[in-house]
Amino acid sequence: GQNIDQPTEMTATEGAIVQINCTYQTSGFNGLFWYQQHAGEAPTFLSYNVLDGLEEKGRFSSFLSRSKGYSYLLLKELQMKDSASYLCVRAGSYQLTFGKGTKLSVIP
Amino acid sequence: GAGVSQSPSNKVTEKGKDVELRCDPISGHTALYWYRQSLGQGLEFLIYFQGNSAPDKSGLPSDRFSAERTGGSVSTLTIQRTQQEDSAVYLCASSLEGARTEAFFGQGTRLTVV
């Protein structure tokens, strides 16, 4: 299977740091994406990891460990507009398999 | 085009009718995906096209669902004899070369079967 596990919901305070974890099946793995989806909107690309390690892009960073089948998305200096669902997406040979998403609520 | 375009944006249809959903991918993108998303749920994979071929149709829920892509560009998703459980947002995405490249999503077609 290609099960992707991530927490259903998280809450964090404006200005804080939050880490969203994701585990996935390692067989046939070709990379790990993170997408952001605001309510009622289409998903938008945040990051892509294919090699182990940390990729930093502004306030957002994404980490991958291929041997552990593990990734996380790190959001720093949280803003109210970061309230959204964050989707962990596993790339297979051609299929993109989406996790059910982590709904992040940023509170004042 | 500048982005992935889907039409119609909203469709209300009577149970038992056929519907056709259209997706115009970004020009030059060889890979095209269809997903559907029910309210509050995750994205459910339906089908993937590489060019005009569909190497993976495993996600189509039943034989009432079919999809085609012509000229390596426009794709249509057809649902025959619609049922209420088909109500969802149908999202199309395209990417330059497939699963290793960023997928760009259209705004979706919200299908309501009454």
Q: Can you walk me through this structure?
A:
The complex is a heterodimer of chains A (108) and B (114). With 108 residues, chain A is an all-beta fold. Chain A has strands spanning 4-5, 9-13, 18-24, 32-37, 44-49, 53-57, 60-65, 70-75, 84-91, 96-98, 102-107. In chain A, the strands form 2 sheets. In chain A, strands 2, 4, 5, 9, 10 and 11 form a 6-stranded mixed β-sheet that branches. Chain A has a 5-stranded antiparallel β-sheet with strand order 1-3-8-7-6, with no helix packed on it. The radius of gyration of chain A is 13 Å and the shape is globular. Chain B is mainly β and 114 residues long. Chain B contains no helices and 11 strands. In chain B, the strands form 2 sheets. In chain B, strands 2, 4, 5, 6, 9, 10 and 11 form a 7-stranded mixed β-sheet that branches. Chain B has a 4-stranded antiparallel β-sheet with strand order 1-3-8-7, with no helix packed on it. In chain B, β5 and β6 (53-56) form a beta hairpin. Chain B is globular. At the A-B interface, β5 and β10 of A face β4, β5 and β10 of B.
SSE topology:
The complex is a heterodimer of chains A (108) and B (114).
Chain A: E1 4-5, E2 9-13, E3 18-24, E4 32-37, E5 44-49, E6 53-57, E7 60-65, E8 70-75, E9 84-91, E10 96-98, E11 102-107
Chain B: E1 5-7, E2 10-13, E3 19-24, E4 31-37, E5 43-50, E6 53-56, E7 65-69, E8 75-79, E9 88-95, E10 104-105, E11 109-113
Parallel strand pairs in B: 2-11
Antiparallel strand pairs in B: 1-3, 3-8, 4-5, 4-9, 5-6, 7-8, 9-10, 9-11
Which radius of gyration of chain B do the C-alpha atoms yield?
Answer: 13 Å
User: Which regions of chain B are unreliable across 5 or more consecutive residues at pLDDT < 50?
Assistant: none
Shape of chain A: globular
The whole-number mean of residue pLDDT values of chain A reads 93
**Helical stretch count of chain A?**
0
Amino- and carboxy-terminal Cα gap of chain B = 33 Å
Structural class computed from helices and strand pairing of chain A = mainly beta
Which chain pair has the greatest contact? A-B, 22 and 23 residues
Terminal Cα separation of chain A, in Å? 40 Å
> What percent of residues of chain B are in strands?
over 45%
Please state the structural category of chain B. mainly beta
**What does the main sheet of chain A amount to?**
6 strands, mixed
Portion of residues within helices of chain B: under 10%
Strand fraction of chain A: over 45%
